[in-house]
Write a structure and sequence with these properties.
Layout (H helix, E strand, L loop, with lengths): L1 H79 L6 H54 L1 H28 L3 H13 L5 E5 L2 E2 L8 H9 L12 E4 H9 L1
Helix pairs in contact: 1-2, 1-3
The protein binds zinc ion.
Zinc ion binds next to loops.
Length: 242
Amino acid sequence: MKKQIMIMKELQLNDNKISILTKEINKLTTEISNLKNEFERKTNDFQQKEEEKKDSIKERHQLELDVDVFDNKIIKLKDQQFNVKTNKEYTSLLEEVDNYNEEKNHVEDAILAKMEQLDEIEQVLKKLKNELVEDEKILSTDVVDKEKEIKLSQEEITRLEDRKKVLLDSFKQDFKASYNAAFKKYKGEAVVLIKKQICQGCFMTLPPQIINEVLMGEKVIICENCGRILISDFALEEDETK
Ligand SMILES: [Zn+2]
């Protein structure tokens, strides 16, 4: 009797450990995946900013060429001023020069705006670069530690699953079936204690003959209400005080 109860108790403790380890593995896996995603996101942001920088430099260069074009036109017009014959021609030439100067000013403003934009891009790039360096450190230390922890937990789970198989094999087939059904239904909590005549799984008060049968320990007793396997706290307490 005691032996059977102790095996059931060990089985439940075994299941609890598996459940805790599985949750821990899931938590670590999520953390790793979040860190990796974040790193990937920042790497993409960095590459995108690098592209923006290239474009911005190219655009600025184009604007500088435009300024050169205006400068050349203005120089040519100024050369022509010595060849004009009438006042009218002279006035119109000056107007043309003014127009080009105005356009040139617009382009120069655009160049200044581009330079400011480039400054901003450089700052973002610098910030991202620093963050990526830090993240790389985390990936090569914390993540490696977490991965090691996962591996150890997985090995422990394998050991616990092997032990569970041994424990279950020591019971009869009907117990195994009831156990597996309750295990599935209650997400790992297949075995529960009776305390003060109450099933600690569903909190229903159990009939005296059920409690007696549990205490006798000759067969597996299942809570009629919830289907969990019942074990008695009396028997356990006796064993634990030994
Ligand atoms: Zn119950």
